[in-house]
User: What shape does this take?
Amino acid sequence: MFNIGKGLLLKLFPSLGPKGVINTQIAVYKKLKKKYPTASEDDILNSLIMYRVKSPLSPTSSQEEINHYDKILKNNNKTLEDVIWAIIEYEYILSRFVNYQKLREILSAKLSKFNWTPEKIQEEIDKEKDDWIQYIQEKVRNID
Assistant: This one.
């Protein structure tokens, strides 16, 4: 029942799901670029990350998020795509599942009814990830 309700909510309010997060991050990025036209790209991207960390809707503690984003915050060659993927990865995968192994275990249990192999489950996980990365790339490419 919850999954049906959750799916319906995401259809009615897409801003609640990953697409909404992607679109919001792009909107915030554009506002930051406009507000701080002389800021470096790295500073803008770091601000975008910190904006997300300070969000009251955060799935975990600020320190856990800082730990996750530390590597990308220190990377001076990151792109908007990298930052948005890091946010999606953290909020929709890592903060909900300890790691991909846990995700595979959960999916295996649910999909064993359909005789899915571990390889098929991994294929579906990879496909989902690729779909989100492609969506991010398309949205970033179409920034005004």
Observations:
- Helices lie at 2-12, 18-35, 41-53, 62-74, 80-94, 100-111, 118-141.
- Residues 17-141 form one domain.
